[in-house]
Specification:
One of its GO terms (molecular function) is glutamine synthetase activity. Its EC number is 6.3.1.2. InterPro entries: Gln_synt_N_sf, Gln_synth/guanido_kin_cat_dom, Gln_synth_cat_dom, Glutamine_Synthetase. With 369 residues, the chain is of the alpha+beta class. It folds into 2 domains: 87 residues, Ubiquitin-like (UB roll), CATH 3.10.20; 241 residues, Creatine Kinase, Chain A, domain 2. It is built from 11 helices and 13 strands. The chain starts with a helix and ends in a 15-residue tail after the last helix.
């Protein structure tokens, strides 16, 4: 057993005594930000003299890029702290350099500008975050060491002891998100044991990215308490053909209104012309993660060609059957990877579907099937 596993086994009930101690009028605020990788989160906690009524205008100093470089943390959204409870807070921050310019991994700033341009369309988003649970030794939870898991379908939404692992984590995460004020709207078991999904939304504009990133932070903190790791890897290690995505639902007021199906189909046609450009921003490595995930297997589409259909799940973008029957609603883009930056995803959707300045893919090779 590794040192990490032994540490995770320490009796965490000991801390209950300390958590129950009165803290007076002060408030502990944990500032959260996306690090230089664009995938991982960092945090630091400060003591404020009083509970903040809203976002603080003060800039907070941190470190970035692995060097002693001061950066500015700009608070953008505040939540209740589900770990040390009220009056304590979680505060999501944007990261600027010393010249007040967004650092490279700060996708939120540009996303916010685009959302301001398209606000008349009232864009709504929902995101379906899949993740896989591993123990601290890197083994899929519930599986014997050195075993190799082969994808078995159907496995969605199963309720069978011995074939599903991690429900307590899923439930605890959901409850913590609800306490915090995160707009989590559902959870379910996924295709392989130890794989789960939660959904966030609907949210308008940049709000979806804020809520998804904080939901991810809460997930990792919950997993700390359970002594496991939540992997957002689109192609989890040790899994033969199972994958993880972050399917994104998108609509405008026109799509949601009577006759909205026409607007949905028009947006899908626009998306078909920029397939390659979207794939470059649908994972943090310019498409290198998704090329291993989007193989046409495990309810995925093919990386190199755009496809669409009603109800089908092995396509790039689909129209859910209830949307088709009702004649209005939303489209579901199934291409974003589980480790995507939600700000980059929704920015691309808004630019392609709502702004007239969009350009087609350079190679022109994508076809609608």
């Amino acid at each position: 057993m590794s040192a990490a596993s032994k540490s995770a086994g320490l009796n965490k009930t000991v801390r209950q005594h300390y958590l129950s101690l009165a803290q007076g009028a002060v408030c502990l605020v944990t500032y959260i930000w996306i690090d230089e990788t664009g995938e991982n989160l960092k945090c630091k906690t400060k003591t404020l003299n009083t509970e903040p009524a809203g976002l603080q205008g003060k800039n907070r100093l941190g470190q970035a890029n692995g060097r002693l470089v001061e950066v500015l943390l700009i608070p953008v959204r505040m939540f209740r702290d589900p770990f040390i409870l009220d009056p304590n807070k979680l505060v999501l921050c944007e990261v600027l350099d010393s010249n007040r310019v967004p650092i490279g991994s700060n996708q939120r700033s540009q996303c916010d500008k685009i959302m301001e341009e398209v606000k008349e369309f009232q864009p709504w988003f929902g995101m379906e975050q899949e993740y896989t649970l591993f123990d601290l030794d890197g083994q899929l939870i519930g599986w014997l060491p050195h075993s190799f898991l082969v994808f078995v379908s159907p496995g969605f939404n199963r309720v069978v002891a011995g074939r599903l692992y991690g429900r307590n984590i899923c439930i605890s995460h959901c409850k913590a998100c609800l306490y915090a004020g995160v707009k989590i709207c559902g959870t379910n078991a996924e295709a392989i044991p130890g794989q789960w999904e939660f959904q966030v939304g609907p949210c308008e504009g940049t709000e979806i990215g804020d809520h998804l990133w904080v939901a991810r932070y809460i997930l990792h903190r919950v997993c700390e308490d359970f002594g496991v790791i939540a992997s957002l890897d689109p192609k989890p290690s040790g899994v033969n053909s199972g994958t993880s995505g972050c399917h994104t639902n998108f609509s405008t007021k026109e799509m949601r209104g009577e006759g909205g199906l026409k607007h949905i189909e028009e947006s899908i046609q626009r998306l078909s012309k920029r397939h390659s450009q979207h794939l470059r921003v649908y994972d943090p490595h310019g498409g290198q993660d998704n090329i291993h995930r989007l193989t046409g297997l495990s309810s995925t589409s093919h990386f190199h060609e755009f496809s669409t259909a009603t109800a089908c799940r092995d396509v790039s973008v689909r129209i859910p059957v209830h949307v088709s029957q009702k004649g209005c609603g939303y489209l579901e883009d199934r291409r974003p990877a589980s480790n995507c930056d939600p700000y980059a995803v929704i920015r691309a959707l808004a630019e392609t579907c709502l702004l007239s300045t969009t350009e087609e893919d350079e190679d022109g090779s994508e076809t609608v099937k």
